[in-house]
Amino acid sequence: MKRKVYVAIALVILGAAIIFPSKLPKGKPEFTFSVFSIADGVTVGGGDFWLQTWQASDGTIIRESKNGYFSEEDAHRALEGKLKDAVTILERKKPLDDLPNVDERIVANYVDPSSTERTVSIIQLQKKDVYRVDAPSLEHALAFEEYRRRER
Questions:
Q1: Per-residue pLDDT for 85 more than 50?
Q2: What distance in Å separates the CA atoms of residue 98 and residue 102, rounded to the nearest whole number?
Q3: In what order do the strands lie in the sheet with 61-68?
Q4: Inside any domain, residue 19
Q5: What contacts 32, CB < 8 A, 6 or more positions away?
Q6: For residue range 5-43, what is the model confidence (pLDDT) as tens digits?
């Protein structure tokens, strides 16, 4: 008798799930991105630098930049210097099979001292370059990273 009751309850729940689908988001959010501003130049040390500001379809601003250095050692030192300012390091991986041009990938939380706003950064060491994405949320940072990966 108990088994019949459990089966009946399971069927009611399954039926309700089919008739009233969940309002929870499914998978990663799909944002579109458009370039808001572009700047490039040379750093004090003489390496190439570029910065692009993007706007997501929900109005969120994302910054993307790349700093070039004269050697891989200089780039690695610069990366370690940037990590000293991180509030938390959420993930640190090397090497990456799915990103062959990336020697190391770090996801970290930062706080802007001038505004106390939190930022999630995805930082990649790419030989002599340090590439960085800054977004107000992990969701936006990962969606933008995936967007740029598909674009290449």
A1: yes
A2: 9
A3: 33-42, 48-56, 61-68, 129-135, 118-126, 104-111, 88-93
A4: no
A5: 56, 57
A6: 333 443 334 343 444 443 334 445 678 888 889 998 887
Least confident range from 5-19, 50-64, 83-97, 119-133: namely 5-19
How many distinct structural domains can be found in the chain? Answer: 1
Query: Token pair of 84, please?
Result: 């000293």
* Domain that residue 49 falls in: 28-151
The answer as to whether 13 is a domain residue is: no
Has residue 9 been placed in a domain? no
What gap in Å lies between CA 66 and CA 50, rounded to an integer?
6
Provide the β-strand partners of residue 50.
Answer: 40, 66
Q: DSSP strand E in the chain: where?
A: 33-42, 48-56, 61-68, 88-93, 104-111, 118-126, 129-135
Cβ atoms 111, 87 nearer than 8 A: yes
Mean pLDDT confidence for 68-81: 92
